[in-house]
Amino acid sequence: MSQNSPTGKPRKQIHLAAHFPGVNNTTVWSDPRSGSHIEFDSFLRFAQAAERAKFDFLFLAEGLRLREQGGQIYDLDVVGRPDTFTILAALAAVTDRLGLAGTINSTFNEPYEVARQFASLDHLSGGRAAWNVVTSWDAFTGENFRRGGYLAQEDRYERAKLFMRTTWELFDSWRGEEIVADKETGVFLADATVGTFERHDAQFDIRGRFDVPRSPQGRPVIFQAGDSDEGREFAAATADAIFSRHATLEAGRPFYADVKARLTKYGRTPEQLLILPAATFVLGDTDAEAREYADVVRRQQVSGQTAIRFLEQLWNRDLSEYDPDGPLPDVDPVVGENAIARGRASVRMYRDPLQTAKEWRELATAKKLSIRELMIEVTGRQSFVGSPATVAAEIDDLVQRDASDGFILVPHITPDGLDDFADKVVPILQERGVFRTDYAGTTLRDHLGLAPLEVPLPAGRR
Amino acid sequence: MPAPLPLHLAVALEGAGWHPSAWRDPRARADELLSPAYWTDLVREAETGTLDLVTVEDSLGIQTTSPDGPDDRVDQVRGRLDAVLIAARVAPVTRGVGVVPVATVTHTEPFHVSKAIATLDYVSRGRAGWQVRVSPREWEAELFGRRTVPAIGSDLDAPESVAAMEELFDEAADYVEVVRRLWDSWEDDAEIRDVATGRFVDREKLHYIDFEGRWFSVRGPSIVPRPPQGQPLVTALAHRSVPYRFAAKAADVVFVTAHDAEEAGRIVAEVRHEQAAAGRQDEPLHVFGDLVVFLADDERAAAERKAHLDALSGTDFTSDAPVFVGTPGGLADRLEDLRGAGLTGFRLRPGTIPHDLEAVTRGLVPELRRRGIFRERYDAPTLRGRLGLERPANRYAATTGGAR
Questions:
Q1: Yes or no, beta carbons of B36 and A93 under 8 Å apart
Q2: Does a cis peptide bond (omega within 30 degrees of 0) precede residue B328?
Q3: Which CATH superfamily, name and number, covers A15-285+382-448?
Q4: Would you call B23 and A38 a contact, using CB atoms and an 8 Å cutoff?
């Protein structure tokens, strides 16, 4: 295989991660192969498949309130999930190298607690912890917490920044050489005041001594998912990897170029921030077989009922009387705060419901689509569909052409949905020389090609 | 003569042991206290003794000898890992022993603790518990900066101290109530995966807990389905009337620190009285006696072990709990004596680890078995089952209607 990419540059090494299938309609629970999304055995099997395939890390999303629609708990998708820290710590026991990444929001937690949880996870996994910092959450979720949902959107973002800086200060309050544990002299600690911190800012008024000594990675690897201008800037300044939604060549390349270009002003190189889009896949023995199966999967993901519920999220009104196999409603969406769907990220994506409805109507008319057919058309289509050879070539192509540095793969079946990819696609990528055949290091920072942290840190990153 | 009731046995794991100089014991793994292998080995050792459970100590603030804040000592263990994560890390590599981490209530969110312990129950397949701890220290409140805490003065029996304690433990009681409701907020058969109707869950079997109290309002339901045990084991350490009342109301196991049989009898009577006052007289509530133990094959060697550690630390070791120094056989006698006063089990705090932990599992346990008062093997798959506690009915299951 050629060592050079189509653009003539040395071939980039691809980063791959596995996202445990979660609480959304892309997770197909009606398939007979679909197992538990809660029992530990499912996480164990999923993690071990990812590690067998030498993936960089496993990723868990977060949700702190069950989603609702029309004033009722949404019951058509997988509902419920276990606690992120607990699952990741348990997975550390049954894996050796796989990175362990969790989304932990900064609104309904406190820095001291989150810092000690991530530092503990990093110790207990031998340096494999990663934190996906989410920057906002809603008052609906706040009803499960004593803090409540009082933070305004702009304050939540500010809080996220200050939250992260504060946790860094805590992580860095131990340099890593303080524990002497000399039984002869009786000196356990080289520094009597190690861990001392003080933080007084718009969000936090805290002081004391952090009680978790420096962990193998120093801090967890930091992931972010920001897509807005502000989010991209935040990631460029602070993150080690960014989770994007742009898994295509057309959308991926501009995003990639934009984000990487922002790094210079923070004194960072392009290698210090990886761009990892979330991606789905459907495999078949041939491309035609995969396409056929992909259609089946899409219809499993978008039942008639699911299509109506999707439409309600944009229309912001009860559409239960409509026939999913019939045309779109002729009434317009209700504009304003979404009262129908709560706790769903997708709702926030429809910034201009009337315009979106207009586009959907035009698309449905032009292609003669029913409600269900339209929803299959406009919601989350599969990223990679084809034979293992086709999918491997596409992934490699996207990475070499700088649409991404790799992908976070989301199978549609729990827990064994990754197996085919691990067993059939990964060997081809390895053969092409673009994916590791074994782990070169022990920590997640090693897998991601990130240099070890230096202590103390450069002022620009504090 | 009827066969004696089996005795329940736990160990409390803390760093290198409960003696402040334990880390200097020749066998102490002082530079491994933050490693997963250390904790895995300890919990597996407890499991070789078929102990009911291990508790994993924790606190929010750094270890200190001062009530007013961190001290500047460098001759004792400082630094620790989050106990819930330690418990989760050891759960998949053990099969029998219960795992019961400390989680503090005063500054944390009940929703988070509820889902963490529920998940610990999943990853341990029904062996999870929780030791509830309040955090009355102002310097610990400053780590969070969200609130102040009612100050408990140095005279614990002064009315202001009692009032402050009541406030902290009333909040803890509300906290446990929120956590327990969240554990029940999914009925056991809520997940239906009904392909015909397209419904993954039966939403009638998911319940808003709608807790409204002085400290919390929590809506629910939990995001974690009801854990394997239904209700993981709730435990608490208690030294005086206010926490006895709390534990009698909220816990499944209360750890007490009776120094002799007479005191044990008094405490048990008070706990039982409070249990009845809380309307729980028909529910099992275990009262375990806590003891710090320094063990050796003969009494003199045990005394020398402790004396050596005391010399290293420069003071005679004392504890809230009684300190036992002697042989496993002597300890067995002591436990039998205390048990006669109504304690249903014991939690032993090893003075040094691994030495005193192994003396429990390899010395005390065989002795108790010889006396016919301790199990030969795990006889129930869940922690509750082992303690004779049934899997509780779901408080919401009997109601009609369910969630909206």
A1: yes
A2: no
A3: Luciferase-like domain (3.20.20.30)
A4: no
